[in-house]
Amino acid sequence: MRQSATQPPIFAKQAAPRCRDRWFSAIISQNNAASLRRREDNVRFCLAFLAALAIASGTLPQTWAQDAAANYPNRPIRIIVCVPAGGGVDTVTRIVANGLQEKLGQPVVVENRAGAAGNIGAEAVFTSDPDGYTLLAAQPSPLTVNPLLYKKISFDPTQFEPVAIMTTVANVLLVRSDFPAKTAQEFIAYAKANPGKINYASQGIGTTSHLTAALFEKVTGTKLVHVPYKGTAPALNDLIAGHVDMIFMELASAIKLHQAGKARILAVATAKRIPTLPDIPTLEEAGVKNFESGTWNAIAAPPKTPAAIVAKLNKAVDDVLASKDVQDKFAKLNLHPAGGSPAAAAAFIKKETQTWGDVIKEAHVPAH
């Protein structure tokens, strides 16, 4: 029987439902695949969110932190020095950084970010990821008393994770080469006879050079004029040029100027005389009782850096400080390598905060 030309073949009638069913199945399958991808994306987003939340809240699972430490470091480490190049902290950090490269097997880059007594560099590290790849190398003030001296400060020093104290060094009373007084006693007498006429440099507001001078004014009854600089190098340059009269400076930076006749050390702020300067008296010998002052520098990590990474960094820093090569370099600079555990560093910084905080209050050092 012939079919009409206008009628579709029988097999077409039978195939149509099967094609329709496959078409709908394909659409459903595509929708399911898209839905599955969306679910997978949601799962990945949630896991990433939870990980970020854990890091921010300090509840990152211990196994995750240990895994991160086991693979650390696998790329370059950056140490931000919060003073200009050429100062004591900068010199020490570069020596330690060279040793860390050998110990950790990764480049360690030193970057200077100076200003506001270390606040600019400290803030940059404070807001960095807590992964051990951005560290702070600082003098005391950014890790201790700056909140007492600056009205606007965007970080909390107590939240840093101390890694280690690198070095400690005594402070000395350093004057320009042609200053009228030749001894510490003569300097004190001259200052008392000329209130407000002696200007003193510092490495910046809140640095030990500033606070030591403030303490000196209080205990000697003198009045000096403060000229803050952005670090050691510019302050010493102006002292050498005769633009400022004196500075309380760490021995490591002062002794070469003293030996070269570019400036003069009148006294050391230690309990006993320093072996490398046997002819220079202590300030106590000059009549300033119980006057001691020193400075130090430390490495710290951003808040919430995993303890395992801090411990790994601490071990590397301690190994570098204990090496003969580094100790010989520090000895030539009249620096004392410190080291110790992160807990010891934290306790030391806390004590220093209390000590210099008391000086700020007792000497009525104003906030800026």
Helices, strands, pairings?
Blueprint: H1 10-57, H2 62-70, E1 77-81, H3 88-104, E2 108-112, H4 119-126, E3 134-138, H5 140-143, H6 146-149, E4 161-176, H7 184-193, E5 198-202, H8 208-220, E6 224-228, H9 232-240, E7 246-250, H10 251-260, E8 263-268, E9 294-301, H11 307-322, H12 324-332, E10 336-337, H13 342-362
Parallel strand pairs: 1-2, 1-3, 5-6, 5-7
Antiparallel strand pairs: 3-9, 4-7, 4-8, 4-9, 4-10
Helix pairs in contact: 2-11, 3-11, 8-13
From the N-terminal CA to the C-terminal CA, the straight-line distance is: 107 Å
- Cα-atom Rg, whole angstroms? 32 Å
Helical stretch count?
Answer: 13
**Domain module tally:** 2
Query: Mean pLDDT, nearest integer?
Result: 86
Task: Describe this protein's structure.
It is a single chain. The chain is built from 13 helices and ten strands. Strands 1, 2, 3, 4, 5, 6, 7, 8, 9 and 10 form a ten-stranded mixed β-sheet that branches. By secondary structure, the chain is an alpha/beta fold. The chain folds into two domains: 67-168 and 295-362, D-Maltodextrin-Binding Protein, domain 2; 169-294, D-Maltodextrin-Binding Protein, domain 2 (3-Layer(aba) Sandwich), CATH 3.40.190.10. Helix 2 (62-70) runs parallel beside helix 11 (307-322), helix 3 packs across helix 11 (307-322) and helix 8 crosses helix 13. The chain starts with 9 loop residues before the first helix and ends in a 6-residue tail after the last helix.
